[in-house]
Amino acid sequence: MNTKSHICVQNLNVFYGKDHALKDISVEIPDKKITVIIGPSGCGKTTLLRSFNRLIDDIDGVKVSGKVLVDGENIMDPKAEVTHIRRKMGLLSQKPYPLPMSIYDNIAYGPRLNGERNKKKLDRIVEHFLRTASLWDEVKVKLHGPASNLSVGQQQRLCLARGLAVGPEIILGDEPTSALDPRSSQHIEQRFLELKEHYTIILVTHILRQAKRLADYVLFLYNGQIIEHGPAKEIFENPKQAMTRDYIFGVIS
Amino acid sequence: MDRRKLEENFFKGVMIASTVSILLTLVLILWTVVCKGLPYLDWNMVTQAPKSGFYLGKEGGVLNAILGSLCITGGATLLAIMVSLPVVLYLNVYAKKGSRLTYVTRFAFDVLWGIPSIVYGAFGFTLMLFFGMGVSLLGGIITVAFLIFPIMSRSMDEVIRMMPRELLQASYALGATRFETAFKVVVRQTLPGITTAVLIAFGRGIGDAASLIFTAGFTDALPSSLSRPAASLPLAIFFQFGTPTPEVQGRAFASALILTIMILVISILSRFLTKKLTKNVVR
């Protein structure tokens, strides 16, 4: 099996109790590009995203079959060590959730879990990733103040920095701008465009215009199935499936 | 005036009346205890153990009961925290949401909460007989721990359940284990609620007399060893009320006042401390 890309999904099925949430998904996610998962509400976008770092484990009655290969390792294997898989990916959720600690400690949380204790190194990590998320100038004077005092837009950038500080190769975004005002959204989108040089980015969004702005590669999901996937240009300009066309031109939503 | 407005005003009235009557009750209780207890509250009450003839109106104080109550309830609270915290973290972090085990556990807590304290006393006594222990401070600590454990766990559980699930996921996504998440995120985030739970349990424990009659017993001596009997304020109040001497009955009110002040001081102190520790809590 060729596993050149970071993430490769093979025959993935996810059940919530009797509900068949993902049906036989097989897809390879291209590296160092922005892949956008689109589709109507409840079609399994978030489930697919969360199976990449096994956050769906948490739900009662969830059953999974098939494989998700991350760097060639099947993460759905019950023996797989889940924390090391999760360290390969940063997650941005719909609403930012800063941890109940200071701004500094939020960023240092991941590196510290990894055993980094050196104060100078941590200082450098915190500054570096806050700059990457372009938050440094706004917070440098209040690094030790509570993260919950930041605005929602700032919090989302903090969460981005916090995720990056763990040293992932992949960034997962679950409608990361849906709770943000337009300016903050633009800010986050800009970061994604900068970051795709070094990271593989997978975004879930229900905003088509955002998908068009950002996507290099598109997955269209409907009712738990992949209807179509391919380079963004092809999908948006010349979709092959009638259902994709309907969704993109706003017939189904 | 139309019907809806009338309705609105009526219920507003009911609510205000209820609130005021609760506050009034509190004030009346405090007023009674202060009025009747204050004249008998002197330095001897809190610095001396009962001397011979104390219950007939002679010299002495209730230091034995103050220290006894603090030892029993303090020990029991620590013991209960050591059991409650793991149980509650298990229910909310480790166990899958909505699983059968969590349901049964919560139900068990609710049932245990409702069991009268005298039953806990009898249970503790049976347990002590089984292990060959005599009436002792340790027996009291264990029994009160049993009594307050469900109260503490259920109150902690209630606040931790309110915590957004996504906060856990944010921590997992950064590669944290469940254990790291439980102690670095969950406990920090819910510390004010955990403190309240501990305080509720402490208050319940320190005010209980029935569970201690058979287990910790009563003594005029200051608590000195885990294997000796220990006095407690509720029982001291009970015994003093039981005497015909007005002087001693007055001291019962003074003891009640001491108990009230102790609970008040401990509540205020721990609230003050948690406030300092929780400036980072996510709201």
Descriptive report:
The complex is a heterodimer of chains A (253) and B (283). Chain A is of the alpha/beta class. Chain A contains ten helices and ten strands. The longest helix of chain A has 14 residues, at 119-132. Helices cover 72% and strands 0% of the residues of chain B. At the A-B interface, helix 2, strand 6, helix 3 and helix 6 of A face helix 7 and helix 8 of B.
Question: What's the SSE blueprint?
Answer:
The complex is a heterodimer of chains A (253) and B (283).
Chain A: E1 7-16, E2 19-29, E3 34-38, H1 45-52, E4 62-70, E5 73-74, H2 82-86, E6 89-92, H3 103-113, H4 119-132, H5 136-139, H6 152-164, E7 170-174, H7 182-195, E8 200-204, H8 208-214, E9 217-222, E10 225-231, H9 232-237, H10 242-248
Parallel strand pairs in A: 3-8, 3-9, 6-7, 7-8
Antiparallel strand pairs in A: 1-2, 1-4, 4-5, 9-10
Helix pairs in contact in A: 3-4, 3-6, 4-6
Chain B: H1 3-37, H2 43-47, H3 63-94, H4 100-114, H5 117-130, H6 137-162, H7 165-173, H8 178-189, H9 191-206, H10 233-241, H11 246-277
Helix pairs in contact in B: 1-11, 3-6, 3-9, 3-10, 4-6, 5-6, 6-9, 7-8, 9-11, 10-11
Seen as an oligomer or otherwise, the chain set is heterodimer
Task: State the end-to-end CA separation of chain A.
Answer: 36 Å
For the sheet with most strands of chain A, the description reads:
6 strands, mixed
Q: What is the helix fraction of residues of chain A, given as a range?
A: 25-40%
Largest interface: A-B, 33 and 29 residues
The major sheet of chain B is characterized as:
none
Approximately what portion of the residues of chain B adopt beta-strand conformation?
A: under 5%
Overall 3D shape of chain A: globular
Number of strands of chain A: 10
In short:
The complex is a heterodimer of chains A (253) and B (283). Chain A is α/β, with parallel strands linked by helices.
